[in-house]
Design goal:
There is one protein chain. The chain has 13 helices and 11 strands. The model has no long low-confidence stretch (mean pLDDT 97). It has a 5-stranded antiparallel beta sheet. It has a 3-stranded parallel beta sheet with strand order 1-3-2, with helices on one face. Strands 9-10-11 form a 3-stranded antiparallel beta sheet, with helices on both faces. It has helices spanning 12-21, 34-39, 75-80, 82-87, 89-96, 101-106, 109-114, 120-123, 165-171, 190-193, 269-272, 279-286, 299-317; strands at 5-8, 25-28, 47-50, 59-61, 67-70, 175-179, 185-189, 212-218, 225-231, 242-248, 254-259. Strand 4 and strand 5 (67-70) form a beta hairpin. Helix 12 (279-286) crosses helix 13 (299-317). It has 318 residues and is α+β, with helices and mostly antiparallel strands. Residues 1-223 form the FAD-binding PCMH-type domain. This is Xanthine dehydrogenase family protein subunit M. It comes from Sphingomonas aliaeris. Keywords: FAD, Flavoprotein.
Length: 318
C-alpha cells in the first residue's frame, strides 16, 4: 500500500469540494472494496477524505410514500429494516445474498453502488486491463471469460458489475441523490447511473469528479411478489454468474432486472412486457444482442432457466 494522507469531513458539501480541489483524493466510508484495491495498488489515492461523520445513516419515509436511504446506511441495517423487508423485499433479499455478514456490517449503500468489477484481469496488475489502466488492452478478451459479460460489451472491456443491491435498486427504479463540489445537488435515475464500457471502461458511473452520493430514494411501494434469484458457484460469499431481481404482480405483469450479464444492472422494457408469455420470450428479449465466448455461452440457457425459476417461485407465493 502506498502512503496517503487522511482527513474527516464534516458536511457533504465540504467533502465534495475537498475531493474536487485535492489531486488524487478519494472518499472513504466502509472501505470494504477500496482498501483491498489499495493493498493491491490498483487504487493509489494520495489523500482519503472520510465521510463517516456526515450523518447520512438514516432510513426515512418520503412525502410521496417512498423511502430515502442515507448513503452511509450499512447493508445489514438496510436488509433488516422493517419497512424494507415488508415493502421492498427484493432489496432485502439481494443484500442478504451478497458478501458475508461481517462485510455487510461495514459496507454502505453508496459504497455498494460504487464497488468495482471482480474481473480477474482487473485484479492482476501483470495483465492488461483498460479499466485499471486506460489504453493498455483487455486480457479478458480471448482469456478466461467464464464469469464475464455477454451484454453491452465493447472491444475494450467485457467486465461485469458485481453488486447484488444495485440489481434490486434497478428493478425498484431507485434514484441516486448527490452533492456536487459547487454546492449544488443532483438526482440521477439508477438506470442512468452506471455506464457501459464503450471505449472508456474506466469510467463506470456518471458521477463528476468530487460528486458525493448522499442518499438513494425508492418510489412508493408497488406491492407484488418480490424475488431475488442468484446463481453462483457456491452457496455463499460468491458473486453472481446470473442474478434476477423480480417484482411480479397478480395477473402476470411485473419487472425484472439482471446481474452478472453486463457492465451495469440490466433491465429491458420489452422483456417486461412479455412476462405473461413465459420465460422463453422474456429471455429472448433480455438477450437480444448478446455476444458470448465458448466459456460463458452457458449463460444464455441459464438466463431462461433462471427466469423460469423466478416465475415458478412467484406462482408458489401467490
Amino acid at each position: 500500500m502506498k502512503p496517503f494522507t487522511y482527513t474527516r469531513a464534516t458536511s457533504p458539501a465540504e467533502a465534495a469540494a475537498a475531493v474536487a480541489r485535492t489531486p488524487g483524493a478519494k472518499f472513504i466510508a466502509g472501505g470494504t472494496n477500496l482498501l483491498d484495491l489499495m493493498k493491491l495498488q490498483i487504487e493509489t489515492p494520495a489523500h482519503l477524505i472520510d465521510v463517516q461523520d456526515l450523518k447520512l445513516d438514516r432510513i426515512e419515509k418520503t412525502k410521496d410514500g417512498g423511502l430515502r436511504i442515507g448513503a452511509l446506511v450499512r447493508n445489514t441495517a438496510l436488509a433488516s429494516d422493517e419497512t424494507v423487508r415488508r415493502d421492498y423485499g427484493v432489496l432485502s433479499r439481494a443484500l442478504l445474498a451478497g458478501a458475508s455478514g461481517q462485510l455487510r456490517n461495514k459496507a454502505t449503500t453508496a459504497g455498494n453502488l460504487l464497488q468495482r468489477t471482480r474481473c480477474p484481469y482487473f485484479y492482476d496488475t501483470n495483465q492488461a486491463c483498460n479499466k485499471r489502466k486506460p489504453g493498455s488492452g483487455c486480457a479478458a478478451i480471448g482469456g478466461f471469460s467464464r464469469n464475464l459479460a455477454i451484454l453491452g460489451t465493447s472491444d475494450a472491456c467485457i467486465a461485469t458489475h458485481p453488486s447484488d443491491m444495485a440489481v434490486a435498486m434497478r428493478v425498484l427504479d431507485a434514484t441516486v441523490e448527490t452533492a456536487r463540489p459547487d454546492g449544488g445537488t443532483r438526482a440521477i435515475a439508477i438506470a442512468d447511473f452506471h455506464t457501459l464500457p464503450g471505449k472508456t471502461p474506466h469510467i463506470e458511473t456518471v458521477l463528476a469528479p468530487g460528486e458525493l452520493i448522499t442518499a438513494v430514494t425508492l418510489p412508493a411501494p408497488v406491492g407484488g411478489t418480490h424475488i431475488y434469484h442468484k446463481v453462483r458457484d457456491r452457496a455463499s460469499y460468491a458473486f453472481a454468474l446470473i442474478s434476477v431481481a423480480a417484482v411480479i404482480q397478480p395477473g402476470g405483469r411485473g419487472r425484472l432486472a439482471f446481474g452478472g450479464l453486463a457492465h451495469k444492472p440490466w433491465q429491458v422494457d420489452a422483456a417486461d412486457q412479455k412476462i405473461g408469455s413465459g420465460a422463453k420470450p422474456v429471455a429472448a428479449a433480455v438477450l437480444a444482442g448478446a455476444k458470448t465466448t465458448s466459456q460463458n455461452a452457458f449463460k444464455l440457457p441459464l438466463v431462461e432457466r433462471s427466469i423460469s425459476a423466478v416465475f415458478a417461485e412467484a406462482r408458489a407465493q401467490a
